[in-house]
Amino acid sequence: IPSVSSIVPESCLLIVVGLLVGGLIKGVGEKPPILKSEIFFLFLLPPIILDAGYFLPLRQFTENLGTILIFAVVGTLWNAFFLGGLMYAVCQIGGTGLNHIGLLANLLFGSIISAVDPVAVLAVFEEIHINELLHILVFGESLLNDAVTVVLYHLFEEFANFEQVTIIDIILGFLSFFVVSLGGVFVGVIYGVIAAFTSRFTSHIRVIEPLFVFLYSYMAYLSAELFHLSGIMALIASGVVMRPYVEANISHKSHTTIKYFLKMWSSVSETLIFIFLGVSTVAGHHYWNWTFVISTLLFCLIARVLGVLGLTWFINKFRIVKLTPKDQFIIAYGGLRGAIAFSLCYLLDYEHFNMRDMFLTAIITVIFFTVFVQGMTIRPLVDLLAVKKKQESKRSINEEIHTQFLDHLLTGIEDICGHYGHHHWKDKLNRFNKKYVKKCLIAGERSKEPQLIAFYHKMEMKQAIEMVESGGIAKIPSAVSTVSMQNIQPKILPVERALPALSKDKEEEIRKILRNNLQKTRQRLRSYNRHTLVADPYEEAWNQMLLRRQKVRQMEQKMNNYLTVPAHKVDSPTMSRARIGSDPLAYEPKADSENLPIITIDPASPQSPESVDLANEELKGSGHVSSSPEEEEEEEGLVMRPKEPSSPGTDDVFTPGASDSPSNQRMLRCLSDPGPRPEPEEGEPFIPKGQ
């Protein structure tokens, strides 16, 4: 019924089914089954967590890890102590009938009810298609707060049996948090590496490849639970560590099997959990206390809102992408409680906690309120607030190249600044992984394959499967039917292919280019740090040499372009002509140019200045030998120099100089022209023939 499922989340409908089944069993006179904690923790919870950990969006998770940890650790501790303390205060009020419940019992209750439930969050958030940032923040918090919940639960359970709690017990309890969380991660990483190493040798028995993934993951969970470590953290760590190496080793069929089996297994577990919650509500023993139940519900909501607002104010000081008020509202509103709280409460011993039934009743009320009221209203609120939804887009090679390029760029910027952020450490980890880990855990040539090529292969395979599923490629007939069809029907021209076919050589050439140019960018560069940057002693000498070479080249260019050194550097030939035309007396030969050969040019003759034989003209000269090389260099050729600036009050244009004879003017005009290239608009020659 689409109209119902679009309004009511699947988890709510399953709880309703459970309530109906439980009521039916009770109506018949039988005793309904109750969700036992051993069954829940050993068989129903692991598939959901493994599915979440194995297919965890690792990039978004690592980029927001700091925010997730603050919400998961600090937020859960705040909820537990705030709720436990206020509930103890309520219990101490006279006339409520709750005076017998002590502080430790209330703190234990607070630790059970404070944790956000991953099963409930997954069930609701996957249906509303919220954007990746909010999804990973709420879901990541629900996964990682397990360590805090486990520590607080076992801590207060043990403290309740003590006659007196000392400071040493509290310090040990605080240290046990690190042991439980980091110990769980360590166990998960060990089993993940073992699973990846095992998958290296399964090429001849493809059938049992998926079994190793499930087997080692489940062993990681059981090993962690055996030592009272965080089983959820162990499952997530093993899934995240093994996935890249296992997928490189196993066949595509095994990968498909793992994917669909995990999805099926987790959805079955989720269905059973919510149905059993409904059945257990009908079957369980309840003790209703209005004060306790309403106070629990109210303080849960208040603690969640205050915790999110306070922590976000602190987190936004360090985040580049700030969490907006809309985001904060969705994070606070998405703090759903579920079956983990119910099962933890069910584990409590009657002898030490005779108020267990009242705790269970309050927890079931909170679960129903969060799943039904918040779960049903979160979708309309997301639409109302216009919160950004998830964009369904396929990743392309272009996006992958630019992502890698930006990662390298940001790492380089961090190296230069001397600030070692998460890009720096991520790059170090990637290089270590490529250099050592991949060689040990991935079989054959795939270990040396660059990330971009591997991504291309994955996309190619995915595209081929989609084409086959959509009927883009017709089914290939068998050999017999092909032959018979050829005999019966005439040969049909092949249909034009959707994708251009590449030859083997071309494909290998493309791969070689990608390998050489895209993957080794950082290995060619040295990492610089502004604090340790030392000046190169040879740098100044190199700069001087380069400047000298540049000057020599410029001089050579000038000598090639002009017969003599130009009068003015900036002026173009056209400007020079115009300047000399307006002021023919501005240039004159050197004062000591009596010994230089004089070239007389007849303007009527076709001989251009370029065709003058200077060697003959030198032989015709007076044979003067210079005494030093410097004088030779200075007096070589014809040299023009600008006229000395005139004294103020004299007219530059109309006052004739000492050497302003017509022959001198004619020669200067000829030599100042770089070549016979008249401008398009000039019809007449520069020197009139009649002059």
TrEMBL record:
GO CC field:
basolateral plasma membrane
Tell me the membrane topology, using the record's own terms.
Multi-pass membrane protein
**Any Pfam family the entry gives:** NEXCaM_BD
Key word Glycosyltransferase present in the record? Answer: no
Report the residue ranges that make up the Cation/H+ exchanger transmembrane domain in this protein: 8-382
The family line of this record is:
Belongs to the monovalent cation:proton antiporter 1 (CPA1) transporter (TC 2.A.36) family.
Q: What is this protein called?
A: Sodium/hydrogen exchanger
Source species of the chain: Nothoprocta ornata
Q: What is the lineage of its organism?
A: Eukaryota, Metazoa, Chordata, Craniata, Vertebrata
**What is the primary gene name for this protein?**
Slc9a1
